[in-house]
Design brief:
Strand content of chain B: 35-45%
Oligomer: heterodimer
Number of strands of chain B: 16
Number of domains of chain B: 1
Number of helices of chain B: 1
Largest sheet of chain B: 7 strands, mixed
Largest sheet of chain A: 7 strands, mixed
Distance between the termini of chain B: 35 Å
Chain lengths: 217, 230
């Protein structure tokens, strides 16, 4: 039995490794010096559907010359009562682990139910039986510090009404530097000097920040 | 769809035998104040679909970005037939062939050149019939609708998800409309009849099916995010 579970666990790990996506961010030394002196953080955001990037997935003080950030398709669904720029995501409902192709019902009492298979294969579906709510999604990432955390990638700017909502995570990340910003901060204006990296067709990409410009080495 | 097709004035029926053929049908959608606010601010559109017998609702007949506390949608017994090379959920209906005005009880032959011939009497009395002598083609039907702001267009209500066989294909329009709210839905957008692969966030309200077969006017109220008959 123990062997079987170990095998299953290893198979699961291998499957996840297959779908792991990563970005390598390199920062030229003079730029690194300037960014550090001015108190900038290295920030990541991830896209859902065709909506604008709107949550700081992760922000880091402790970045260095070479930084690796990766993620796997492991998601959580939640609901929030508000979307407000420049404040931290407020998770209002319980949080449910959920995969693509699964549906979770938000009950009339406002409780997200255990997910079951349903909805498009590429989407997370919230079937809202509660009323006006802002659906939100967490995704698991492995940060430049090696820590695995599940933090918000998206909160709907506007509330949705009773009925189904399909949230389709897209393999595009936004990377930028910003002062005084925390992980899970919502934003509704465009970021300054970002680079958008499309990992739809590839599992890894490298970008270099040099002379305040993003380049592909 | 490119441009809405202008329609001729209503045909008159001097016999007065068949009222359903001439009287417009109207569905009135009323929306409670608080619901209207939420729907408008969250970018929902008021959507209507109409059905072909034994088929799912699969085309957004009309979607309105501008809608109000009270909304009237009317339609008349006036159809067009077309062929389409494509069925793709969330894409706009593609009218591939020429378009012919057709009445129920009439049929049109899609000839080997891919042209729909002028309709003649044929097929079931309650159907518009496409006789496919061409090959791989999907059958489509448009119906004349008068939108919230009084403009009339002939717009697609149906495209067959699969190509139709090389035979007579009767399509029976049914006086049932589906009404719902959906973010980013557009007029003539095809709807998935099984789980599709949308590339965007799709959020949809509860819908209501209104059966208009026995009446000319029906009203539905959307309040507290639920549908009712006032």
């Amino acid at each position: 039995m123990a062997d079987q579970s170990l095998q299953r666990f290893q198979a699961f790990q291998a499957a996840l490794a297959d779908v792991q996506k990563q970005v390598q961010i390199e920062i030229a030394l003079p730029d690194l010096e300037n960014l550090k002196n001015a108190g900038y953080k290295l920030c990541f955001a991830k896209k859902v559907g065709t909506e604008d990037f709107n949550v700081v997935w992760q922000s880091y003080d402790a970045y260095l010359f070479s930084n690796n950030f990766s993620w796997t398709p492991m998601y959580q669904l939640f609901g929030s009562n508000t979307f407000q720029g420049d404040v931290t995501v407020r998770v209002s409902t319980n949080v449910r682990d959920i995969g693509l192709g699964e549906t979770s019902v938000l009950s009339p009492s406002g409780i997200l139910q255990p997910p079951s298979t349903g909805g498009p294969e590429t989407a997370i579906t919230m079937n809202n039986e509660y009323g006006s709510i802002h659906p939100g999604v967490n995704q698991l990432s492995t940060g430049i510090d090696g820590k695995q955390v599940s933090t918000p990638i998206y909160v709907a700017v506007n509330p949705v009404v009773m009925g189904p909502t399909q949230l389709t995570p897209v393999e595009k990340v936004l990377v930028w530097f910003e002062q005084n910003v925390e992980t899970s901060t919502m934003f509704s204006t465009s970021r300054s000097n970002p680079v958008e990296i499309d990992l739809t067709a590839t599992n890894s990409a490298t970008r270099r920040y040099e002379d305040q410009v993003w380049v592909t080495p | 769809m490119t441009q809405p097709i202008p329609v001729d004035p209503l045909p008159t029926d001097p016999s007065g035998q068949d009222d359903s053929a001439t009287e417009p049908k109207t569905v009135v959608i009323e929306i409670a104040d608080e619901d209207l606010r939420v729907l408008r601010r969250s970018g929902y559109r008021l959507c209507f679909a109409k059905r072909i017998q034994a088929q799912p609702f699969n085309v957004v007949w009309q979607a309105f970005e501008e809608f109000f506390s009270s909304n009237h949608l009317s339609w008349i017994h006036s159809f067009e037939l077309f062929g389409s090379a494509l069925f793709l959920p969330y894409a706009t209906v593609r009218i591939s062939t020429n378009v012919v005005r057709i009445d129920t009880g009439e049929q049109s032959v899609l000839d080997s050149d891919g042209l729909l011939e002028a309709p003649s009497t044929g097929g079931p009395a309650d159907a518009v019939t496409m006789v496919n002598r061409f090959g791989t083609i999907r059958a489509g039907v448009s119906q004349t609708v008068t939108g919230l702001q009084g403009e009339s267009h002939s717009l697609p209500i149906y495209v067959s998800a699969e190509p139709v066989p090389l035979e007579a294909n009767p399509l029976v329009p049914v006086d049932e409309v589906l009404v719902w709210f959906e973010q980013d839905a557009t007029t003539s957008m095809m709807l998935p009849d099984r789980p599709g692969q949308p590339q965007e966030m799709v959020s949809r309200s509860k819908g209501t099916v209104v059966d208009m077969s026995g009446s000319d006017v029906q009203t539905r109220l959307y309040a507290g995010q639920e549908w009712s008959t006032p």
